[in-house]
Design goal:
CATH class: Alpha Beta
Number of strands: 15
CATH topology: Metallo-beta-lactamase, Chain A
Bound molecules: zinc ion
């Protein structure tokens, strides 16, 4: 894959929903419109999502271009502990002496000692991809805050409420901003590719759980959000339609993987899911979208296998 020269200027752009919430594109995996990092510029300053370890310097740059000092940042919130969401945190902290990292209580110990997390992520990826996902730096426990369902973080006029949102991962949080009623979905609500307007499941091994993710969708609907703020990527202004589309797509993808993987193989299933979901792709390269789909094929296969071992639910 050819690397593009990094010529864009890093800055935070204001979201339409309120005057204090901003978004920057860190060009995660060298792809435009995939890695969203949010800034809430309130009395307390919060950054939502920290990207991969590669993205930390870009976030620092964006904060400075915005006119803040990195030492002004009070909170780094990670939706879950996968490397593309929490990987940047340990690399940002030395420049952000006031900041604490807010993480799901189930993810806490993995940020203190990320060795297992990094090893298992790299095990699941080929060398190229492992390089793109970067690495992690241990975070001292006194810089971490373990978050439980319905915990709150008050920033001044903005108040964030954390919700346990399992499915994508057991340590996944969705975060409601009570001021503007937007929900940061992490990877709990799948992937959104703006411009192409593609909605895509993301169901990674080893712990993706379809039933739990469907439950999470029902909970997200009940919050009646004004917009969804995807980590991949950006604001979606029709939350109900987006979530309902995902509630249909996840089980359909699950069925295709279950019924077709043995006969069609991974490449055959990949073609079917691409045709089902990505026909409209123009802005996002086919190869990039296919890599995301492969992750879910493997995760859904692992999920079905787990169910078979457990046996049917009563
Ligand atoms: Zn992700």
């Amino acid at each position: 894959m050819g690397r593009r020269p990094m010529l864009w200027s890093m800055s935070f752009a204001r979201l339409p929903f309120d005057p204090e919430t901003y978004l920057t594109d860190v060009r995660m995996f060298q792809q435009e419109g995939f890695g969203a990092v949010y800034l809430i510029d309130d009395e307390q300053k919060a950054i939502i999502e920290t990207g991969t370890s590669w993205d930390a310097s870009k976030i620092l740059e964006a904060v400075k271009t915005f006119g803040l000092r990195p030492s002004d940042i009070d909170a780094l919130v990670v939706s879950h502990i996968h490397l593309d969401h929490a990987g940047g945190a340990g690399f940002l902290l030395p420049d952000m002496p006031r900041a604490k990292v807010y993480v799901h209580e189930r993810g806490f110990k993995h940020l203190v000692d990320p060795s297992k997390l990094v090893a298992s992520a790299h095990q699941a990826l080929n060398d190229d991809e492992a390089n793109l996902f970067g690495t992690m730096r241990p975070i001292p426990p006194d810089r971490l805050v373990a978050v439980k369902d319905q915990d709150r973080l008050d920033l001044g006029t903005h108040s964030l409420v954390f919700y346990d949102s399992p499915g994508h991962a057991p340590h996944e949080l969705a975060i409601l901003d009570e001021r503007n009623r937007c929900v940061y979905t992490g990877d709990a609500a799948g992937l959104y590719f703006p411009g192409d307007e593609i909605l895509m499941p993301i169901a990674p091994a080893p712990s993706f759980d379809l039933e739990k993710n469907l439950e999470t969708f029902r909970h997200l609907l009940a919050l009646k959000p004004r917009a969804l703020l995807f980590s991949h990527y950006g604001p979606h202004g029709k939350p109900r339609a987006a979530i309902e589309a995902m509630m249909a797509l996840y089980p359909s993808w699950g069925r295709v993987v279950k019924e077709r993987l043995a006969s069609a193989g991974e490449d055959g299933v990949l073609r079917e899911l691409y045709d089902m979901t990505c026909r409209a792709a123009k802005r996002f390269p086919r190869d990039f979208l296919e890599r995301r789909i492969r992750v879910s094929i493997r995760g859904l296969a692992a999920y079905h296998e787990r169910l078979e071992h457990v046996g049917p639910r009563r």
